[in-house]
């Protein structure tokens, strides 16, 4: 049985590795993409230049002394990592801190006229307005006459594969959407997941969202279905309090997605109206907990968040980053049981994720062997495979 304390934490220090490429190539590309998308002034250009040289050849700089979240970041490890190379500290930490610094550089935290302006908004909007979104919404019309379980499965898969539409990922994986996923699902615990949400259920679903746009829309459709069909009585949608990892959803993105749904033709508008009503009467709420953007695994979640997860009927984590944080950003042997790495979690938990980083658990030895034989390491990061994992037997013990 693998020892969960000894699987190595992923760093970005190995040239040629996926994490190294993210730090050395993706982050500079994101800086340039954001710079080109806005008519920023000289101060912002200077700050972006400084961030570019810091993250490629410099060291991690501390936050300004008056930053409102300074104490939070100190509690999350800033004092330990400041002064070290971005490549030598845990990759999860390094990436998360990069996004914090990017917001700083463009004046997101103010004071000033750029306070609160999401540097990723143009990309999120473009995706929401894309013709592909129209096509996906139009496909709902054909679903309406199908039995409940069939609709539930279709919407679960919509939410799962919606995770491929992550904008940051596309910067370095153009074409992944068109590639044939073989086998598409490397693990499928959907029966367990549905058994946790029976049609007569009245419980609470916590959905920890990932990306805005073409991922958030199907997440919302799934929630609408579960509420309307009585599989849950309430849903809490956890989003980020600040823009993060390019396309991560914030409350503003939820508003955009809901407005998009209610304005759509056909069945989509009905889902949108059901959600709008559920927001008004409190059956659907959004949450933006500070820990949602922490550079740490969910095993380190604070007590208030643990209590919320403990009280939920099911907590669903969406996407690659949330998966890394749920199981720990470590190089697990892929056959490490999902139940084992999530044993600390205080309630029933599920993950819906396309594979876009090296972390994976819960595979059978045969699946791992077949994937390695067919693709080498590419299946881990290419975004062409996905998993549905769920576990109900938890002790909630801290690691
Ligand atoms: O969480 P998401 O949106 O599914 O994916 C986030 C991601 O694009 O960012 C990281 C690299 O920057 C990887 O974990 C993953 O590829």
TrEMBL record:
UniProt keyword terms in alphabetical order: Hydrolase, Manganese, Metal-binding
Q: What's this protein's family per the entry?
A: Belongs to the damage-control phosphatase family. Sugar phosphate phosphatase III subfamily.
List the Gene3D superfamilies. Answer: 1.20.930.60, Uncharacterised protein PF01937, DUF89, domain 3
Kindly provide the name given to this protein in its UniProt entry.
Damage-control phosphatase ARMT1-like metal-binding domain-containing protein
Q: Which is a GO BP term held by this UniProt record?
A: DNA damage response
Q: Domain Damage-control phosphatase ARMT1-like metal-binding spans what residues?
A: 23-366
Q: Which cofactor(s) are needed, names only?
A: Mn(2+)
Molecular function as annotated in GO: metal ion binding; phosphatase activity
> Which catalysed reactions does the entry list for this protein?
beta-D-fructose 6-phosphate = dihydroxyacetone + D-glyceraldehyde 3-phosphate; beta-D-fructose 1-phosphate + H2O = D-fructose + phosphate
Name the species this protein comes from: Streptomyces collinus (strain DSM 40733 / Tue 365)
Q: Does the keyword Transmembrane helix apply?
A: no
């Amino acid at each position: 049985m693998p020892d969960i304390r000894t699987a190595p934490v992923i760093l970005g220090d190995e040239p040629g590795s996926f994490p190294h490429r993210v730090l050395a190539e993706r982050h500079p590309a994101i800086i340039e993409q954001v710079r080109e998308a806005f008519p920023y002034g000289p101060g912002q250009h200077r700050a972006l230049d400084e961030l570019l040289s810091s993250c490629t050849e410099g060291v991690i700089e501390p936050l300004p002394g008056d930053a409102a979240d300074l104490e939070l970041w100190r509690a999350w490890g800033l004092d330990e990592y400041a002064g070290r190379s971005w490549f030598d500290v845990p990759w999860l930490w390094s990436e998360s801190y990069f996004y914090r610094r990017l917001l700083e550089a463009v004046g997101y935290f103010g004071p000033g006229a750029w306070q609160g302006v999401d540097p990723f908004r143009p990309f999120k909007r473009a995706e929401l307005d894309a013709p592909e979104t129209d096509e996906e919404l139009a496909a709902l019309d054909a679903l309406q006459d199908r039995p409940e379980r069939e609709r539930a499965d279709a919407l679960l898969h919509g939410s799962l594969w919606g995770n491929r539409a992550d904008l940051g990922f596309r910067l370095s994986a153009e074409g992944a959407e068109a590639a044939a996923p073989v086998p598409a699902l490397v693990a499928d615990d959907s029966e367990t997941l549905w058994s946790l949400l029976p049609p007569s259920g009245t419980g609470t679903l916590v959905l920890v969202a990932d990306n805005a746009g073409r991922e958030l829309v199907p997440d919302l459709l799934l929630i609408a279905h579960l509420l309307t069909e009585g599989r849950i009585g309430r849903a809490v949608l956890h989003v980020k309090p600040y823009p993060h990892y390019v396309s991560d959803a914030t409350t503003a993105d939820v508003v955009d997605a809901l407005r998009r749904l209610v304005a759509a033709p056909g069945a989509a508008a009905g889902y949108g109206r059901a959600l709008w009503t559920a927001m008004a009467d409190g059956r659907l709420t959004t949450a933006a907990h500070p820990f949602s953007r922490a550079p740490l695994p969910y095993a380190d979640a604070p007590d208030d968040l643990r209590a919320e997860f403990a009280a939920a009927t099911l907590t669903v984590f969406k996407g690659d980053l949330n998966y890394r944080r749920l199981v720990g950003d470590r190089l697990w042997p892929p056959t490490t049981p999902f139940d084992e790495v999530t044993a600390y979690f205080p309630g029933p938990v599920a993950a819906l994720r396309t594979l876009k980083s090296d972390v994976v658990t819960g595979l059978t030895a045969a699946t791992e062997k077949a994937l390695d034989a067919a693709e080498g390491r590419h299946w881990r990061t290419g975004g062409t495979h996905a998993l549905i994992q769920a576990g109900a037997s938890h002790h909630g013990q801290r690691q």
